[in-house]
Amino acid sequence: AWTPSGDALASTLGSGLHQWSLASAPASPRVLSAPPAEAVDRSPAFRPQHPGQLLFHRHNPREGDAIFLRDAASGEARPLLSGLARYRGHAWAPGGSRFYFAAEYQG
Length: 107
What we know:
The chain has strands at residues 8-13, 16-21, 30-31, 40-47, 50-59, 65-71, 77-92, 99-105. It is mostly beta strands and 107 residues long.
């Protein structure tokens, strides 16, 4: 996913999310997330109008899937939704005031 300004790219590398800056290419990417050993973070989506916030999906076969919001200023990633089964995708609404997702809940 490209940042709203188009100067950096976030993607999954291994099991976590990393960000590459065009200004510092070909420098090493910055680590955005480090999930537990059994989990994988993927599908990053920068929040429109709020470039420091990143929505992503964490696939964890033991705990179920979750959607997290990461704040660049604090580095904190907090779960917004958890216990998801059959996760299908997410996207920000224009303007970034809300997001949409498709999944089924477990149970």
